[in-house]
Design a protein that fits this description.
CATH topology of one domain: Transferase(Phosphotransferase), domain 1
Strand order of the largest sheet: 1-2-3-5-4
Largest sheet: 5 strands, antiparallel
Number of strands: 10
Strand content: 5-15%
Order of helices and strands: HHHHHHEEEHEEEHHEEEEHHHH
Helix content: 25-40%
CATH class of one domain: Mainly Alpha
Number of helices: 13
Shape: elongated
Distance between the termini: 108 Å
CATH superfamily of one domain: Transferase(Phosphotransferase) domain 1
Radius of gyration: 39 Å
Structural class: alpha+beta
Length: 400
């Protein structure tokens, strides 16, 4: 078979190479000339067929596209709304069409108005923070003397929130407790402090929008009567002390610690809430009101009229809450008045005098003849369930 193949002459091979090179150069010149003269039409055709799979094989020559079809393709592309597509796809389409868009806008020297219209990611009618209609009320959670708390839902992000709606009076204006709570919470960001999301102010109401926490320590203890498990007590106590340490380091006193103001999330996270009575403590200390803290959790020096107090005020409340979590009942449940509350405290800790409590006689409301003389008791004798705690917790006093 090899003998039947006639070898080609060198001259014939050389002519074929020259012919191929000539044809290649001619085709290149034709292509360049056509690209320069029809760049605008090429862009329009690419844009009109980019998102149509399988169209590359049936594209007609540019000179056969009717003029009315060209106009229609351009109008469809110019009204393209990027927000109808996922973000990843929008980015890809814009990068591929960048050359054509730049070519169109460079001729007029300004950006296309329709392209600029879609450059803003937000709509004027979309829900925004700080607006009353951005939150939907679901149910009432509680009502106080000057505020009502609702469970709500944010229309901005769809999350559950707690709406504390404070009623405003034309004559009295905004309650000082609401102003104080909002101003303090705006600067507190901690896992064991309730988070303030938003503030909404209208003529009739002031609404504080908090993160939603489904229960509080009081309700939690009601569901587990007889005292909590020691491990849970330690967990809640640790978080309470950590939250207090955070605000005390910032010279803030809570001044109203009680189980109702300690929120418990469904994951067991404790958060300090209700800063309506909280105060930013100055150094040196100023005098404060002694009408603070719910009676059962108010320390004896404040009950006796003292207005010179520091972080020890909150720490007394911590001790009372600790005993209540273990015992299942309040440590000092006064039923009548301040006198009855002091009697219950002295029954356990002993009636004070100048030896056991230097300076007690100088307190405004301390009159020795008004109180029964009691001797102090061992704390485990007063509250027997303290023995259930294997590693007994000694509460530190944080002093600034």
């Amino acid at each position: 078979m090899c003998d039947l193949i006639e070898p080609q002459a060198p001259e014939k091979i050389s002519k074929m190479k020259k012919l191929r090179r000539t044809l290649s150069e001619s085709f290149s010149r034709i292509a360049l000339k056509k690209e320069d003269s029809s760049f605008d039409e090429i862009c329009v055709t690419k844009m009109s067929t980019r998102n149509c799979p399988g169209m590359d094989s049936v594209i007609k020559p540019l000179d056969t596209i009717p003029e009315d079809k060209k106009v229609r393709v351009q109008r469809t592309q110019s009204t393209f709304d990027p927000f109808e597509k996922p973000a990843t796809q929008v980015k890809r389409v814009h990068s591929e069409n960048n050359a054509c868009i730049n070519f169109k806008s460079s001729s007029s020297g300004k950006e296309s108005p329709k392209v600029r219209r879609h450059s803003s990611p937000s709509s004027p009618t979309s829900p925004k923070f700080g607006k009353a209609d951005s939150y939907e009320k679901l149910e009432k959670l509680g009502e106080g003397s000057y505020a009502t708390v609702y469970k709500g839902k944010s229309k901005v992000n769809g999350k559950l929130v707690a709406l504390k709606v404070i009623r405003l009076q034309e004559e009295e204006g905004t309650p000082f407790t609401a102003i104080r709570e909002a101003s303090l919470l705006k600067g507190l960001k901690h896992a064991n402090i309730v988070l303030l999301h938003d503030i909404i102010h209208t003529k009739e109401t002031l609404t504080l929008v908090f993160e939603y926490v489904h229960t509080d320590l009081c309700q939690y203890m009601d569901k587990h009567p007889g005292g909590l498990h020691p491990d849970n007590v330690k967990l809640f106590l640790f978080q309470l002390l950590r939250g207090l340490s955070y605000i005390h380091q910032r010279y803030i006193l809570h001044r109203d610690l009680k189980p109702q103001n300690l929120l418990i999330s469904d994951t067991g996270e404790l958060k300090l809430a209700d800063f309506g009575l909280a105060r930013a403590k100055s150094v040196p200390s100023h005098t404060y009101s002694n009408e603070v803290v719910t009676l059962w959790y108010r320390p004896p020096d404040v009950l006796l009229g003292s207005t010179e107090y520091s972080t020890c005020l909150d720490m007394w409340g911590v001790g009372c809450i600790f005993v209540e979590m273990i015992q299942g009942v309040a440590a000092f449940p006064g039923m009548k008045d301040i006198q009855d509350q002091l009697e219950r405290i002295f029954l356990v800790l002993g009636t004070p005098n100048e030896d056991t409590w230097p300076g007690v006689y100088s307190l405004p409301h301390f009159k020795p003849e008004r109180f029964t003389l009691y001797s102090s008791k061992n704390l485990r004798q007063a509250w027997n369930k303290l023995s259930y705690v294997v590693d007994y917790v000694i509460l530190p006093t944080i002093v600034i």
